[in-house]
User: Fold this.
Amino acid sequence: MLDFSQFSGFVLFMFIFTTGFWLLIFLLTFVVPYWLGGTIWENFKLKREAKKAAEGK
Assistant:
């Protein structure tokens, strides 16, 4: 059986492991798509503005 120091080490390891796991899931499902979508949208707006400026000359 585990003594207290081994048990507390195991609990600490599991806490860090699961925190990292859920942080990775959060980043891959929310942050990265939001970042990529915003980048694509900003590039689209810049190209559209450049096209309007070129047509206006």
User: Anything to note?
Assistant: The CA atoms of residues 31 and 37 lie 10 Å apart. The chain has a mean pLDDT of 95.
